[in-house]
User: What shape does this take?
Amino acid sequence: MQETHVEMTVFEAILARRCVRSYTEQVVSLDAIHILLEAAIHAPTALHEELWAFAIIRDKQLLKDISDYAKPLFVRELQRTGHTPGPFTEPDFNIFYEASTLILICSKQTGPFVVADCWLAAENLMLAACAMKLGSCVIGAALTALNTPDIKVKLNIPEEFSIIVPIILGHPNGKTPPNQRRKPLILTLTS
Ligand SMILES: Cc1cc2nc3c(=O)[nH]c(=O)nc-3n(C[C@H](O)[C@H](O)[C@H](O)COP(=O)(O)O)c2cc1C
Assistant: This one.
């Protein structure tokens, strides 16, 4: 396996994880992907139902094709909600930032807890990636496109599955410095 595992506490990984938007050409090994899926499926799961499923896309041309398909759909969403299109109208902009891998966390069932399960799995995966010196980023901008019948057919994802979380993955090109957050807004703190 090419990826190295860094010893860090969970809290250190939480603080170190950043969305990475610049990647090297180096591909993520299959061994590493299996470790990350193992981390994902150990997330809490409502009623212990484990209703998640995964799709892994490592074909860069296919990722570029999906990016080209997704951008105009996302621009329409941005315009509908009063946002500016930003880089999404630029022909060379890749919605997946040229990452070598896209992992889709999917589910067949609907319901509030299924979505929660998938997002918890996503965070486990991203923290584990961070501890393996891999970069990751949720790509919500691709969600509408990924859930279209056309793309599901392209990706061999059965129609009854919904894609809940798209996460890109790769070897970071440089460092992303730690992020600042506002202090938590505490509404109640009882004795
Ligand atoms: C639901 C969700 C959707 C996101 N979609 C995108 C996206 O489409 N493109 C992108 O570059 N970052 C996306 N992000 C990453 C956020 O922009 C990022 O988490 C935020 O700026 C905080 O930065 P940090 O994760 O490095 O702390 C998304 C994050 C979440 C939670």
The CA atoms of residues 149 and 159 lie 7 Å apart. The two ends are 50 Å apart (CA to CA). The chain has one domain: 21-170.
